[in-house]
Design goal:
The complex is a heterodimer of chains A (118) and B (114). In chain A, strand 7 and strand 8 form a beta hairpin. The termini of chain A are far apart. By secondary structure, chain A is mostly beta strands. Chain A has no helices and eleven strands. In chain A, the strands form two sheets. In chain A, strands 2, 4, 5, 6, 9, 10 and 11 form a seven-stranded mixed sheet that branches. With 114 residues, chain B is mainly beta. Chain B contains no helices and twelve strands. Classes of the chains: A mainly beta (118), B mainly beta (114). Chains A and B meet through strand 4, strand 5, strand 9 and strand 10 of A and strand 6 and strand 11 of B.
Chain lengths: 118, 114
């Protein structure tokens, strides 16, 4: 196991609702990245948080937002859910002391949250 | 922009046979390269990674991969496949110094015949 925990493991939401997914990073890691993995595809980078600030974003609309807390845990929020948001959402923990560029040579993934939008 | 292509969507091999999964990447400089394995409904487990140095890297579970700069490839190999190797395999590329910002291929599904 990687030490990265995500909650909940599964959830079902209705189109138009909002959802919050949570991730606890591995001890000693200060960087959290979020990915969306649709069925049959590879993970797609949503955004990354470093020391509570967004540090890069993929091609996702603003209704995908995030937070990182002082203990480096993180949340992913999705507003106005659409059917296409149904996917496995993965959190990855990385980094150590200093910037994301230092000792950021490996990302440790959680087990994911399976979101179904109906 | 960086990208990864895994040309084989699905591969079937017999148990005990050798395996090679292909990965081609596009990146403007020397990248970080990774291979991950994913069992159904699970997260990603890192098999191996390449940053620099020896172009043949060893990983867990008996896997190895070879970085070929001239071909922009990072193919994964295993000399003898076990039934437990059946899974989805993903190749990924990241900008140097930030493994958290990776670009993944669409994966190769490995089926192992008894």
């Amino acid at each position: 196991e990687t030490g990265v925990t995500q909650s909940p493991t599964h959830l079902i939401k209705t189109r138009g609702q909002q959802v919050t997914l949570r991730c606890s990073s591995q001890s000693g890691h200060n960087t959290v990245s979020w990915y969306q993995q649709a069925l049959g595809q590879g993970p797609q980078f949503i955004f990354q948080y470093y020391r509570e600030e967004e540090n890069g974003r993929g091609n996702f609309p603003p209704r995908f937002s995030g937070l990182q807390f002082p203990n480096y845990s993180s949340e992913l929020n999705v507003n106005a859910l659409e059917l296409d948001d149904s996917a496995l959402y993965l959190c990855a923990s990385s980094g150590g002391q200093g910037s994301p560029g230092i000792a950021n040579t490996e990302a440790f993934f959680g087990q994911g949250t399976r979101l179904t939008v109906v | 922009a960086q990208s990864v292509t895994q040309p084989d969507i699905h591969i079937t091999v017999s148990e005990g046979a050798s395996l090679e999964l292909r990965c081609n990447y596009s990146y403007g400089a020397t990248p970080y390269l990774f291979w991950y394995v994913q069992s159904p409904g699970q997260g990603l487990q890192l098999l191996l990674k390449y940053f620099s140095g020896d172009t043949l890297v060893q990983g867990i579970k008996g896997f190895e991969a070879e970085f070929k700069r001239s071909q922009s490839s990072f193919n994964l190999r295993k000399p003898s496949v076990h039934w437990s190797d059946a899974a989805e395999y993903f190749c990924a590329v990241a900008r140097r110094s930030n493994a958290g910002k990776s670009t993944f291929g669409d994966g190769t599904t490995l089926t192992v015949k008894p």
